[in-house]
Amino acid sequence: MKLVVNADDFGYSKGVNLGILEAHVEGIVSSATMMMNMPGVAHAFRLAADTPTLGVGVHLVLTCGSPLEANVPTLTDENGMFRRGQAHLEDVSAEEVEREFTAQLETFFRSGRKPTHIDSHHHVHARETILPVVLRLAERHGLPVRYPWAFEQAAERSHTTKVHTTEGFSHHFYGADLTADGLIAIIEGLSGSATAEIMTHPAYVDEELLKGSSYAIPRARELQILTAPKVKEYIKLKKVQLVNFNEIG
């Protein structure tokens, strides 16, 4: 099996960035996706430039921080920040979403890199109102997209025929009760797929993360597990190939 172990939220803060880097260098993380609108993005780009073995894609954002585009009123609150939560996403303007996502992707391209793939913060790309926009952008740029069928809001598979993704996906490595054995069980459960992805969120917990995210302390536990000798030994024993989205074809 070719397995992408992706660390979400690259660029959120320096603590998140350094945790992701360690989970790659010392552990099993093979890929990360970058939040183009967050304060740690320049730091993330510097780390990525020094670490060419880490695949880096774009973590499209609609629910955290501020937009890169001006005049997107269906996406923002009275302070010009992205609205929190997801209830409003049923009524957002698809044109505003496309302009904002285009701005996020173009900001990445201006770094001189091509992203390995697209996914999204809080899985917003799986929503019926947003998935067509993401698929259109993915086709335009020739980019794979995180498996969108794992979430309740996902559209039919027939909508994604032209966009490459993995055969399997797990978002279950998440929460306060994570263990190395639990991660191994997730990997084992994906073993029937030729290609698969596991979503992760390793980090060193810093002030920005504590203030801004409801999911903070467990990220340090994720980092510990993703670098655990037991997990690395299992990967080696089972001959799992750790890859990024450029290598899943």
Automatic annotation (TrEMBL):
The gene is chbG. Signal peptide: none annotated. Its EC number is 3.5.1.-. Keywords: Carbohydrate metabolism, Hydrolase, Magnesium, Metal-binding. Its cofactor is Mg(2+). This is Carbohydrate deacetylase. Homodimer. Probably catalyzes the deacetylation of acetylated carbohydrates an important step in the degradation of oligosaccharides. CDD domains: YdjC_EF3048_like (cd10803). GO terms for molecular function: chitin disaccharide deacetylase activity. Mg(2+) binds at H59, H121. Belongs to the YdjC deacetylase family.
